[in-house]
Amino acid sequence: MDKNIGKKLDGRYEITELIGEGGMADVYKAIDVVDNKTIAVKILKKEFAESEEFLRRFRNESKAIAVLSHPNIVKIYDVGFSEKIQYIVMEYIDGITLKEYIENERVLSWKDAVHFVTQILRALQHAHERGIVHRDIKPQNIMMFTDGTIKVMDFGIAKFAREEGKTATDQAIGTVHYISPEQARGDITDAKSDLYSVGVMLYEMLTGQKPFDTDNPVSIAVMHMHNIAELPRRINPDIPVPLEEIIVHAMEKVPDDRYQTAVEMIRDIDRFKADPDVRFGYVTRTNQEPDNHTRYFTAVNEQIPEEVHQEIRRDARNEARASTGFINQRQPVQQTVAQNADNSGYINNGYTSTDIYDTYDEDYTDFDEEDTEKKSLFVPILSAVTVVVIMVAVFFIATLVKGVFSGEKQTNSSEFAMPNLVGMDYNQAHEAYPNLDIQVEATEFSELEKDKIFEQSIPEGDGVKKGEIVKVKVSLGAKTVKVPNVINYHYITAGEALRAQGLDVEYQYQTNEDFEEEIVFDTEPAALEQVAPGSTVLVYVSKGSEIEEIVMEDFVGKNIADAKVQCGIWGIGVKTEKKDSGEEEGTILKQSIEKGEKVTADSTITFTVSTGKEPEGTVDMEFIFPADSTGRFTITAYQNGVAIYQSFTLSADYSKSNVVSVTGKGTNEEVTMVLTNLSNNLTCEIGKYNMNFEEGTFSAISEDIGKAFQIVDGLVKPEEPQEPETQAQTEAPQQEPATSEEVEE
């Protein structure tokens, strides 16, 4: 038994079940005893808790998610980083991964694909606006609820865009099938890298295959850098042309050539949904060679930086490793491959361990330590020179300022050095320097407090004379902006208008019957209010009226899981009733809303679902014996040649109407009824019947009970007719009575 099961972390989180196990961390199902809800707890394994490298990456995930709050991003509730245990308390997700859904469906309809991708983009937009780049977007890291809601998770290698320079975290890369070209090269990545990965996922959803796929992960990385994928419509001609353009644009090799923000990609998707015939005019490149998208590169080690190359190589060996790791130029990260711990609950996040590739060790050179050491000598030398220059400059400025205030820098009795007025209150500056004629040139908003001088016409240190005019600009205080009125705007357009004013945007989606779907119906702060630049405006977006009519599909014969996802997309509630049936478990037998019937999004449909077990039941059958039947009998039921029932003794002399109760399994079963005469053991078939044991009904296929009684000799035999007496018999002579002597003789 796992030693953590049964523990109560921080006196609150009681661990009940291990649902994900891997190389560096384990995921447990747990109960929050305070809030009485199910949660997921990710615990770093003890052997890695002592490594600062692994700790840094594990904490990076909690740091990334903690600043995010969005309906399409997995929630983090708590963290615990003590000397004894490191854990993250997260939302428990009852669903499956997008990877599992794609594998089950093979090729998704464009409507479903767009529905999923739009939610992913909204989540990424939220993260990108807060300076977080996910860098490992893939179907394994996307969870689906049964209602079709998407949750983006696993920010284990996420990068904060505000981090200075190229850090060790920059070297961590995502799963090779979905990484961007810049990730493969080891370059610094930004939001555009996530959008490339989204394009790859959309490609896979609509074509049923990945754009680049071989047995060699390094070759796949090189393909992302250099090869053009086969156009999606060549694989699946049913893909709408505008969607193909969106995919191609998202997967541009050069980051500046693809979508720059998630908002841009959402906008194109919205335009396509509104007008399926729209054309964006994006260039769709093709390969010069017919099979160029599948060819291998031979000089692999010359295409990819060695540190990235080593990481990809080791990622392949540990494809199913955990997502919490760390990488620098010496320590490659483990590849994150999310795998489901079970189909209900927080998924495994790849916490399993299997070695897959071990064939990439011989052809690659080690990192050149000597070159690194030589290059690194330049940095401290340059730094030392810079420090000296700064110290000299500071000393010079200090001396100059001192001279101004002490009067030492006067060139003659009427000229002195111009003081620094910036930052001083305007009235205080007048009092401090009466020899200057300080005049206000302009008043403007600035970062300084109200009435502070933020600019002067004569630079500090220049020679000035008594009474010389100095023009200054005085602050009006921190600048405020007016919240624009974006009511009745599409939420994308509204967001652009607000950002143009220097405001941050968050969206809240609510049902509103007065506004169409995706239209803004309110903001907080309200329109026309004055707020500070950079303030966050909460934009309320309509989910549309819930009275929208939906034409019901025929789900009979389909799996209940697929039906739940589709109904979730529509917004229709689902109830299930289980019923014994010979159909495969989970197969829908009946639906309460018939195919073609129109319903609203607030409707609820009930599905009758097979348990996979044949139904059991009893069929009562009445047999009327012939009027001239006689004797004692039994009736036996045979199914597939096996006796499944035999009646007790039936007396034809006692009753001509007899009921037998046959118990069996199935809904359309052929049963043969046989009559046996107990006096002579003769048997004969009464008839064949089609029986529904679930409903307790039957119908005759063939039947002749009279013939059966005749064959088993169960009818009363008629009396034999007596022959008429002859004349001779009637006139026979009378004999003499016997004498006593004759009697004695």
What does this structure look like?
The chain folds into six domains: 8-91, Phosphorylase Kinase, domain 1; 97-317, Orthogonal Bundle (Transferase(Phosphotransferase), domain 1); 410-475, Trypsin Inhibitor V, Chain A; 481-542, Trypsin Inhibitor V, Chain A; 549-610, Trypsin Inhibitor V, Chain A (2-Layer Sandwich), CATH 3.30.10; 616-711, Immunoglobulin-like (Sandwich), CATH 2.60.40. It has 19 helices and 34 strands. A six-stranded antiparallel beta sheet has the order 1-2-3-4-6-5. Helix 6 packs antiparallel against helix 9 (241-250). Residues 160-172, 287-302, 317-385 and 398-413 have low confidence and may be disordered.
Number of helices: 19
The domain count comes to: 6
What's the gyration radius in Å?
43 Å
CATH superfamily of the largest domain: Transferase(Phosphotransferase) domain 1
What about the largest sheet? 6 strands, antiparallel
- What is the SS-derived class? alpha+beta
Helix percent reads: 25-40%
CATH class of the largest domain: Mainly Alpha
CATH fold-level assignment of the largest domain: Transferase(Phosphotransferase), domain 1
Ends apart, CA distance between termini: 111 Å
